[in-house]
Amino acid sequence: MAQLIWDMDGTLLDSTHVVPEAFVTVAHRLGAHDIDRDQVVAAYSRGVPEVILPHLVGRPVTDPEMSLYYECLRGQHIEPYAGIIETLAEVRRLGQQVVVFTGASSRAARILFDAAGIDVDLLIGGDHVQHPKPAPDGVIRAAQDAGASLANVIYIGDAPADLQAAQSAGAAGAAAAWGHLYDPKAPATVTLRRPEDALSLIGHNTVAASHPHVSR
């Protein structure tokens, strides 16, 4: 049975505006008035907020300054993508944990999941691994903690870095085509058009052989 591992931003949660706006707001408060959304998104590959924010403002930040970012997140309204709540409920009904690996910090992830009303059984944040995506560290760690073989893991994410992380780990990569960073040119084992399409993958051990492409 294939073990699903989910990305968070752009896969489970529609964070198109919420996360960048929180970074922009705090960067402006800390004096970096030229920072915009595009610069924030471009910095995602650097890893957790504790790395991204100092990069954006061009200097180290203090703990109280870093806390401003998390306070901004708590004040935001965020929604799961359509079909996510129902899909995760069905994942549990089929006997699986809801497993998430996100490049965001686990602190940020818990704030956002609480706001969106999503319960996660196993959460691996960017603060739990040494190297951010597209390195395979987080996929490997999530698989280990879930007790799954990487050969039977499907990492579902919208961004090319998600799919690269899956490939580097020796897992299958499922492109979440509903996400805001989805790139149809990025190599994926499967492409999912809707969250519920992932359910058809759970019963298969060899994803690439069983589902070369899922498109509805």
TrEMBL record:
<dbReference type="InterPro" id="IPR036412">
    <property type="entry name" value="HAD-like_sf"/>
</dbReference>
<keyword id="KW-0378">Hydrolase</keyword>
<dbReference type="Pfam" id="PF00702">
    <property type="entry name" value="Hydrolase"/>
</dbReference>
<dbReference type="GO" id="GO:0006281">
    <property type="term" value="P:DNA repair"/>
</dbReference>
<dbReference type="InterPro" id="IPR006439">
    <property type="entry name" value="HAD-SF_hydro_IA"/>
</dbReference>
<dbReference type="GO" id="GO:0008967">
    <property type="term" value="F:phosphoglycolate phosphatase activity"/>
</dbReference>
<protein>
    <submittedName>
        <fullName>HAD family hydrolase</fullName>
    </submittedName>
</protein>
<dbReference type="InterPro" id="IPR050155">
    <property type="entry name" value="HAD-like_hydrolase_sf"/>
</dbReference>
<dbReference type="InterPro" id="IPR023198">
    <property type="entry name" value="PGP-like_dom2"/>
</dbReference>
<dbReference type="InterPro" id="IPR023214">
    <property type="entry name" value="HAD_sf"/>
</dbReference>
